Amino acid sequence: MSKKSPAIELRDISKHFGKVAAIKDVSLTVNSGEILSVLGENGSGKTTLMNMISGIYYPDNGQILIDGKEVVIRSPKDAFDYNIGMIHQHFKLIDVFSATENIVLGIDDEKFDLKEAKNKIIKTCERYGFSVDPDKKIYQMSVSEKQSVEIVKVLYRGANILILDEPTAVLTPQETKRLFSVLKNMRDDGKTVIIITHKLHEVLELSDRVCVVRKGEYIGTVHTADANESMLTEMMVGKKILLNIDRTDPSNTEERLSVKKINCKSRDGRNILSDISFTAKSGEILGIAGISGSGQRELLEAIAGLQKIDSGEILYNNPKTKQSDNLRDKTPLQIRELGVRLSFVPEDRLGMGLVASMDITDNMMLRSYKKGKSVFLKKKEPRNLAERIIKELEVVTPSAATPVRRLSGGNVQKVLVGREIASSPTVLMAAYPVRGLDINSSYIIYNLLNQQKASGVAVIFVGEDLDVLVELCDRIMVISSGQIAGILDGRTASKEEIGLLMTKKSEGDAI
Ligand SMILES: Nc1ncnc2c1ncn2[C@@H]1O[C@H](COP(=O)(O)OP(=O)(O)OP(=O)(O)O)[C@@H](O)[C@H]1O
Ligand SMILES: [Mg+2]
């Protein structure tokens, strides 16, 4: 490997938030023309560290050097002046503006010419292999297109150092592949790319070096070529951990949900779900696999009463009353109270059913303690629940009284998923529960789902990782274009088989 020059150097950087030491004396060198992954558990300080390079936070102490010279970065604008651009997890684009308008927004240039800007955008896209339509409005774009606009925006302003915070958490495998090819092109063009990701196979596939942080401290940087998954996990967690999913045989299975010929249409009359029929049983995990946007979300929302159904029925066999209720006749709140719970982690994790300014305890009360009684007098239960979730899911937080907005992205999510799991459901629908979670926390969630199964809950798990689906689920239902492409036995299904069914095209394609 040729010797590369340092693009950015951090020396003894620290950052506290009140009593929380988010980053402690971190020193790190990133070279030009390299892709560096930053790896660490949820709450270990990755975003905080990068925010100090991009001017969102100012370090308590330490130095930052760009091309060997010490610099002071007090704002994102300062960062831009040093050609540093960061792509955050939550995009900052204006929905009603086009890609071009968003990209040039805020640039002070008297000789500004929209046509010239558009040409420059097209050239940038061609150079690195993006596909961005300069005239398309943001609200018409997929998550991946929006992300491309954010990246082009920083490149347009001349960024040489690009920082991406968990860019793949919301992308499909195909979109991730495309993003990686763009990032490699940028690296080959001499740019510096720093990427935060929790997915170890992505680290190994993409980066030249990996830097690991743990509890705010710098652990080390290794060449990716010399690294493997178990070594990186050990560096992250500080000890050897066993990552396995213990799949037991289903026991005491009873049909809990019986979905019969569900059909849903979108507002413009397209079929979103066509003739979906399946059962979900107590004491088993039913996996749902499919390319993102194939109807998974609508299906779960239909069961939860949040999606209008045009025909078909959803029977819930109530274990308490031994009666069968048609969930179509019920409101979302009634369905929840029957014990049918949905935890959906959307692409935009901010808008996911938590109130950021409220503390963890109060967020518990939002869902579980709505029923009559005096909400304010009974804070003990939700507080105990909050404490339990913090302990079981290893949520990094000073206390249950900490506002959710002060938690790191992954820890916010643990609170959200934990709340539904802890609500003693009879049917637990968990969609993408490990999006943005570190590897250890992901396995804690898988094992919690297994515990739910063992205690007789009918678990429905929508996941993206096929390796996990075949290890965790008893049965796997594959959805393609709003239809069931097949239901497989989780113990014998192969990833290839599932992959083929996922892309199966059927007559009168729905989406
Ligand atoms: N604005 C803030 N106010 C108070 N505490 C904060 C703030 N931002 C971050 N923290 C705390 O600093 C620590 C590091 O958080 P950070 O967001 O950097 O973690 P992370 O490594 O990016 O985690 P994740 O993988 O979950 O995104 C956490 O304990 C977090 O609660
Ligand atoms: Mg983060």
Present the secondary structure layout.
Elements: E1 6-17, E2 20-31, E3 35-39, H1 46-53, E4 61-66, E5 69-71, H2 76-81, E6 84-87, H3 99-104, H4 114-128, H5 143-156, E7 161-165, H6 173-188, E8 192-196, H7 200-206, E9 209-214, E10 217-223, H8 229-237, E11 255-265, E12 271-281, E13 284-289, H9 296-303, E14 311-317, E15 324-326, H10 332-337, E16 340-344, H11 360-368, H12 380-392, H13 409-421, E17 427-431, H14 439-454, E18 458-462, H15 466-472, E19 475-480, E20 483-489, H16 495-502
Parallel strand pairs: 3-8, 3-9, 6-7, 7-8, 13-18, 13-19, 16-17, 17-18
Antiparallel strand pairs: 1-2, 1-4, 4-5, 9-10, 11-12, 11-14, 14-15, 19-20
Helix pairs in contact: 11-12, 12-13
Bound molecules: adenosine-5'-triphosphate (ATP) and magnesium ion.
Overview of the structural elements:
By secondary structure, the protein is an alpha/beta fold. The protein folds into two domains: 232 residues, Rossmann fold (3-Layer(aba) Sandwich); 248 residues, Rossmann fold. Helix content is 32%, strand content 26%. It has 16 helices and 20 strands. Strands 6-7-8-3-9-10 form a six-stranded mixed beta sheet, sandwiched between helices. Strands 16-17-18-13-19-20 form a six-stranded mixed beta sheet, sandwiched between helices. α11 packs across α12 and α12 crosses α13. It is globular and about 75 Å long. The C terminus is likely disordered. Bound molecules: adenosine-5'-triphosphate (ATP) and magnesium ion.
* Distinct small molecules bound, one entry per kind: adenosine-5'-triphosphate, magnesium ion
- The N- and C-terminal alpha carbons lie at a distance of 47 Å
Structural class label: alpha/beta
* Biggest sheet strand line-up: 6-7-8-3-9-10
State which percent range the strand residues make up.
25-35%
* Low-pLDDT ranges: 369-377, 507-511
Shape estimate: globular
Can you tell me the CATH superfamily of the largest domain? P-loop containing nucleotide triphosphate hydrolases
The largest sheet, given as strand count, sense and whether it forms a barrel, is: 6 strands, mixed
User: What's the CATH architecture of the largest domain?
Assistant: 3-Layer(aba) Sandwich
Count of separate structural domains: 2
User: Average pLDDT value?
Assistant: 89
Please count the helical segments.
16
What's the CATH class label of the largest domain? Answer: Alpha Beta
Total number of beta strands: 20
